[in-house]
Amino acid sequence: MIKKILALLLSLMLAMPSVAGAKGVYIAGATQGDDSGTSCATAHDESWFSAQDNWGTDAADMTPGDTIYFCDDAGPIDGQLIVRATGTSDALYYFAPAFGDAPVLSYSATQGFLFG
């Protein structure tokens, strides 16, 4: 029985796309701490998220396979959020609230999530 479970787990792991090097990038309503984006305490702001230069292949960029976490530490995220990349078939971009947070993404007809 244990061998069957281990075989199943191994086959599931092999079937999953590789996201080696995937990381979490944290975004808040305002820059936090040292602006490294590695936690809500050091989150980038929405203008950093929307800048074309921050979507790419460098280690500090948002890269395919990354999860972008939205934090509620600095109030609502009410600026424009522009998604500048699509990821790949093997490594998408993921968006989620930071653990334990309930971020507010506030937008109007001229702001909000834009894909471009």
Task: Give the tags.
116 residues; alpha/beta; 2 helices; two-stranded parallel sheet
Detailed description of the structure:
The protein is α/β, with parallel strands linked by helices and 116 residues long. It has one domain. The longest helix has 14 residues. The protein is globular and about 50 Å long. It starts with a helix and ends with a strand.
Got a strand count?
Answer: 5
* Structure class: alpha/beta
Tell me, briefly, the overall form: globular
Give the distance, in angstroms, between the N- and C-terminal Cα atoms.
50 Å
User: Helix fraction?
Assistant: 10-25%
Order of helices and strands: HEHEEEE
Strand order of the largest sheet: 1-2-4
Number of contiguous helices = 2
* Tally of individual domains: 1
Low-confidence stretches: 12-19
Strand content: 15-25%
Major beta sheet summary: 3 strands, parallel
Radius of gyration: 17 Å
Which oligomeric state applies? single chain
Mean pLDDT: 80
Blueprint (SSEs and pairs):
Elements: H1 2-15, E1 24-27, H2 46-50, E2 67-70, E3 81-83, E4 94-97, E5 113-115
Parallel strand pairs: 1-2, 2-4, 3-5
Short description:
With 116 residues, the protein is of the alpha/beta class. It is built from two helices and five strands. The strands form two sheets. Strands 1-2-4 form a three-stranded parallel β-sheet. Strands 3-5 form a two-stranded parallel sheet.
